[in-house]
């Protein structure tokens, strides 16, 4: 078969359907249980005090409500591209679809880039190396190229590695819970802190809970990435609903137990602003346990999992939107033998390499917190749009059975997401809006370039529409 034949859209091979229920569940759990809970527990406690478990529960409720909208859409339209695809089908406005695609892709790539740098830093710390910032940068870039190779090799290999990494990162959280319960059973805990609200002086309880929920929501995101794997899932309309709810529920239970153990064992003052809060929890509960030596490696695998899953999501998103004509056709190319979207994988990796280099040059150490808040800000805005879109798309019936959300849930989800986005109600830092605004500006520029590049195609379509052939 000639290469010219392979490049034609009709001859493009389909993605391989390799994900069954268990692999999909581990994909979702692995995506949610990322670096957020390892890094943000102390910052959430700084906002609300000992009731740090409350924001995680609120974040879970908002995520679960929004998940019903995603489930109706992914079972109705089981294709890659997720939110951008649904917006395109609902409104058919190129600018809106492109911007949604860009926002979701940016959140995934930026998270993967930060995770890649964190992987390098944990590797250096775990082995006690002294390589400097340049050495960490080279390790981070090399790690991202390894992710590219795994992603390119195939979805089966990628998800199998995801299973291993998910089990490792889950083991770290279970370790915190088990040691925490052991300390609690031995009387080394103060449960009065678990129900104590301690808010900053400049915030009331509602605003403090909103700010903490905005942070905690970063730890809950990830379930939405799974819809981009719809074309690689076996019977997606049937298995997605129960698997997504199971994954969300499991993650919520883990988060609540971890946060309760943390605030019961460690005073709030020691948790607030702590960059390694879970290490402090275990050191306090079991001083002789070698957590300082073990946790860097657990964290290394945890962030590696986040990077792999986010890069898988971003590449499938670009592939799906290329098939819909929103992005250039070359991004929809599938490797004939591996049956993976190789062009989208290479493109997203190139962006990630540039971001890793940029982040590594930043001398400040608070990039992860700002990046996490910005990621949740962008995704909450997308979730608000998706909750409205599911109602609009009910005017487009399909010829197969699919999940249907109770109508009140998308409405409630849209209101909750907007509430957590607006500066007056969310309690977010101004830096998050500045970064989000910059990303959106870049997206608008890229949209304009794509729009101009597709000019001849638009004119041809308009000519056919205005001058139909004679009957």
UniProtKB/TrEMBL annotation:
The record's section on InterPro entries has:
AA/rel_permease1 (IPR002293), APC_superfamily (IPR050367)
Gene Ontology molecular function, alphabetical: transmembrane transporter activity
Superkingdom classification of source: Bacteria
Q: Does this entry carry the keyword Membrane?
A: yes
Taking the record's annotation, the residue ranges forming a coiled coil are: none
Subcellular location per UniProt equals: Cell membrane
Entry-linked Gene3D superfamilies: Amino acid/polyamine transporter I
Pfam families the record matches: AA_permease_2
Q: What is this protein called?
A: Amino acid/polyamine/organocation transporter (APC superfamily)
Q: Which organism is it from?
A: Glaciihabitans tibetensis
């Amino acid at each position: 078969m000639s290469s010219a034949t392979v490049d034609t859209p009709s001859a493009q091979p389909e993605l391989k359907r390799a994900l069954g229920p268990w692999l999909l569940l581990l994909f979702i759990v692995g995506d949610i249980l990322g670096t957020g809970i390892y890094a943000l527990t102390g910052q959430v406690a700084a906002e609300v005090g000992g009731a740090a478990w409350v924001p995680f529960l609120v974040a879970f409720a908002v995520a679960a409500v929004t998940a019903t909208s995603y489930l109706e859409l992914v079972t109705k339209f089981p294709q890659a591209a997720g939110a951008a695809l649904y917006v395109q089908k609902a409104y058919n406005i190129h600018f809106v679809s492109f911007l949604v695609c860009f926002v979701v892709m940016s959140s995934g790539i930026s998270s993967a880039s930060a995770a890649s740098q964190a992987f390098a830093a944990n590797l250096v710390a775990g082995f006690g190396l002294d390589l400097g910032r340049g050495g960490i940068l080279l390790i981070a870039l090399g790690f991202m190229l390894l992710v590219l190779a795994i992603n390119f090799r195939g979805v089966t290999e990628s998800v199998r590695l995801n299973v291993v990494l998910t089990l490792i990162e889950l083991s770290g959280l279970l370790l915190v819970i088990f040691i925490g319960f052991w300390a609690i059973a031995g009387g080394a805990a103060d449960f009065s802190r678990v129900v104590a609200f301690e808010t900053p002086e400049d915030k009331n309880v509602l605003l403090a809970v909103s700010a903490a929920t905005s942070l905690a929501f970063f730890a809950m995101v990830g379930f939405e990435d799974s819809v981009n794997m719809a074309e690689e899932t076996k019977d997606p309309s049937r298995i997605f609903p129960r698997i997504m709810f199971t994954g969300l529920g499991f993650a919520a239970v883990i988060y609540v137990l971890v946060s309760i153990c943390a605030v019961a064992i460690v005073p709030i003052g020691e948790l607030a602003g702590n960059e390694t809060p879970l290490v402090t929890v275990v050191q306090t509960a079991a001083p002789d346990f070698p957590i300082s030596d073990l946790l860097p490696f657990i964290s290394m695998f945890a962030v590696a999992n986040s990077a792999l899953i986010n890069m898988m999501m971003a590449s499938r998103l670009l592939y799906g939107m290329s098939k819909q004509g929103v992005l250039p056709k070359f991004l929809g190319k599938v490797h004939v033998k591996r049956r993976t979207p190789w062009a989208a994988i290479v493109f997203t990796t190139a962006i990630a390499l540039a971001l890793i280099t940029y982040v590594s040059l930043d001398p400040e150490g608070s990039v992860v917190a700002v990046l996490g808040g910005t990621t949740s800000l962008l995704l909450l805005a997308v979730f608000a749009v998706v909750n409205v879109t599911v109602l609009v798309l009910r005017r487009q019936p399909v010829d197969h059975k699919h999940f249907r959300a109770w109508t009140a849930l998308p409405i409630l989800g849209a209101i909750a997401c907007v509430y957590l986005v607006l500066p007056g109600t969310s309690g977010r830092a101004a830096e998050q809006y500045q970064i989000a605004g910059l990303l959106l500006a870049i997206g608008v520029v890229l949209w304009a370039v794509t729009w101009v590049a597709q000019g001849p195609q638009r004119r041809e379509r308009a000519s056919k529409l205005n001058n139909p052939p004679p009957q």
